[in-house]
Design brief:
The protein is an alpha/beta fold and 324 residues long. Helix content is 28%, strand content 11%. Strands 3-4-2-5-1-6-7 form a 7-stranded mixed sheet, with helices on both faces. The N terminus and C terminus are likely disordered.
Length: 324
């Protein structure tokens, strides 16, 4: 598992990760019993129904108003680009780099799903979560999920027609606000615990017009329960409803270290499971994938690869590697 591995050339980090880790079995559920199909009913003699008196016409019911997410119009805060560069993050409007090219490939895969190029199978339990809500997860701390979440948000914010919200969902150990050099008072958990707190008032606009940050807020001893509540559904809907060009990225706690990550997965339309090539074991990967069953679209993002047979240094972060 941790030996240097030779990978064939692929089009994206996501495909190369699937080659490195076979996690299909971890996502495969138990075999379901065969569906009982009733036999064709016998033909019965036709029955003539008694005439029914016509019902009076009722006035047409007006359709419900279309809900639309609100704008985030608070004062913009400037990103600390020097600190971001020292930590190895992508810099908005920075020079083209190998790291930037890798995340361009990753975001194209995600955007193709968002824009309908790849259709997700409908959920038998109801409408699927919005594909514009993306969860970044990992099995353990230190696999690089927060690093990948920030870089993906910066890369997506470079698109001319997108509005990107980066949410710090690691309530126990939040780090995004500090990493970007921002300051915050209230955040996501405050909006969940207090229905009177509008979530849009917790969003921090940045000096990048298309990039916004939602801090984690005050942690509680019932984080997982709040994330599984109907209030969570309302808050997530308020972030994306009626905004086709708005993408929300959740940085989650490590799956095998904190239970809120599994609750977040149920609200995500897509999940990137960050795999540290020199650290994540096959057993840990399968356990983590099993906790993500609430999300119907899961992809692997390979991090920390040091060797490629093709000579291409995919997955190498050209600076300080991210710590979740």
């Amino acid at each position: 598992m941790n030996k240097p591995t030779s990978f064939p050339q692929k089009d994206s980090l996501l495909e190369r990760a699937s080659e490195a880790f076979d996690f299909t079995a971890a996502l495969r559920g138990q075999g379901l019993p065969p569906l009982a199909v009733p036999s064709e009913p016998e033909q019965a003699a036709p029955v003539v129904a008694a005439p029914v008196a016509p019902t009076p016409q009722t006035a047409p019911v007006a359709p419900p108003p279309i809900f639309r997410a609100r704008d985030w119009n608070g004062p913009a805060q400037r990103l600390d680009r020097k600190a971001m560069a020292e930590a190895g993050y992508l810099i908005p409007d920075g020079p083209v780099s190998g790291l930037g090219e890798e995340f361009r490939i990753v975001k194209r895969e995600l955007l193709s799903s968002i824009r309908g190029t790849k259709q997700q199978a409908p959920s038998p339990d109801g409408p699927s979560p919005d594909g514009k809500v993306i969860l970044i997860a990992s099995a353990h701390p230190g696999d690089g999920k927060t690093y990948c979440a920030i870089n993906l948000a910066v890369s997506l914010a470079a698109e001319s027609d997108l509005e990107v919200l980066l949410v710090d969902g690691d309530f126990g150990k939040p780090s995004i606000v500090k990493a970007l050099g921002l300051h915050a008072e209230k955040g996501f958990m405050d909006a969940l615990t207090d229905p009177a707190q509008p979530v849009e008032q917790c969003v921090i606009p940045t000096d990048v017009p298309s990039l916004f940050v939602l801090p984690s807020g005050q942690s509680t001893n019932r984080d997982a329960e709040y994330l599984a509540s109907s209030r969570m559904e309302q808050v997530v809907a308020s972030l994306v409803a009626g905004r086709p060009n708005r993408v929300v990225i959740f940085d989650s706690p490590p799956l095998l270290a904190a239970s809120p990550a599994a609750a977040l997965a149920a609200h995500a339309g897509q999940t990137l499971l960050v795999v540290r090539a020199d650290r994540t074991t096959d057993a840990a990967l399968r356990d983590a994938a099993n906790l993500l069953r609430g999300c119907g679209d899961i992809r692997l993002l390979l991090n920390g690869v040091k060797f490629s047979a093709s000579g291409r240094r995919f997955g190498t972060y050209y600076g300080k590697e991210g710590e979740a």
